[in-house]
Specification:
285 residues, alpha/beta, 7-stranded mixed beta sheet, two-stranded parallel ribbon, 20% strand, globular
């Protein structure tokens, strides 16, 4: 049965095409050859024809055959310390928690879904995409050097210099924020590893696959990750770098589809966050 004509007329103008997304991305400042780390809300873009896979295609088209699109594909639930895990077990009894943790599935690099939204999952499952191996803080990338960007993600370096995020920093990547605030700016976590020679550390745990097909809990230490002040850092960053100026190292603002977006240069953002943390972070020793 065909949809009523009046419904088609009323909704057609709400549709966002892949071609429009590419044009909007270029207007915002995304350029061919760039490496772009994307934090995105799919629904904020409007009614995208083709959904999340169409957004991934548009991003890939915008950076061209020599560029790269990267997304976080983290799985915070695979943890004993994350907010996601604690929320899930918050109302359980001790026995229920033990049973829940005993049955948690191990991280599977190829098959465990991204916990970071529809666009992230669409890119992870795109043909040719490469995912890093961290069981809690993985990334995925498409582009000619995706293997290099995603290779080598140590367990005890969630989001530090030895993670894919460190490689993005070294490569002067841009961060595209599609209707998300600075609370989601993963790059600020990199500053937590480098703002002091001895950053605070804590214990982590995750479920990994065993060689015999079973699963086991792995316990390790890494830097304390604390995003509580990321919005404050972001506001100060915008004042420092400026917005929509002609300078190369500035923050660009504009609309992609129906979403308000920022395009932020990663390196100066991380360097600014490092300086901010030196002045404002105080952890008990």
């Amino acid at each position: 049965m065909h949809a009523p004509t009046n419904v088609t007329t009323e909704t057609a103008h709400l549709q966002v095409t892949g071609e429009q997304l590419v044009s909007d991305l270029h207007t915002l400042g995304v350029e061919p050859g760039q490496i772009v780390l994307v934090h995105a809300s799919l629904k904020s873009l409007g009614w995208v024809v083709g959904g999340a896979p169409a957004v991934v295609r548009a991003l890939h088209t915008a950076v061209g055959p020599d560029g790269h699109v990267v997304v976080p594909t983290g799985t915070e639930a695979n943890s004993q310390t994350s907010r996601v895990h604690r929320a899930r077990i918050g109302t359980m009894t001790t026995e229920e928690v033990e049973a829940f943790q005993r049955d948690m599935p191990a991280f599977d690099r190829d098959n465990t879904p991204s916990g970071m939204g529809a666009i992230s999952e669409a890119l992870r499952t795109t043909k040719g995409a490469v995912r890093s191996a961290h069981p809690q803080s993985s990334f995925a990338a498409i582009g000619p050097r995706a293997d290099y960007l995603m290779t080598g993600h140590p367990l005890d370096c969630h989001l530090g210099p030895e993670s894919p995020l460190g490689k993005l920093f070294a490569a002067d990547a841009q961060v595209l924020m599609i209707d998300v605030g600075f609370w989601a700016f993963t790059g600020f976590h990199l500053a937590e590893y480098t703002y002091t020679p001895d950053p605070p550390r804590q214990k982590y745990a995750c479920v990994l696959p065993a060689a015999d097909g079973d699963r086991y809990w792995e316990y390790y230490e890494d830097v304390v990750l604390d995003d509580q002040k990321f919005e404050v850092i972001g506001e100060a960053l915008e004042e420092s770098l400026g917005v929509d100026s002609d300078e190369v190292m500035t923050i660009k603002r504009g609309k992609v589809g129906r979403a308000q977006c920022r395009l932020v240069p990663l390196r100066p953002a991380v360097e600014f966050a490092m300086e901010w943390m030196v002045k404002h972070r105080v952890y008990p020793r």
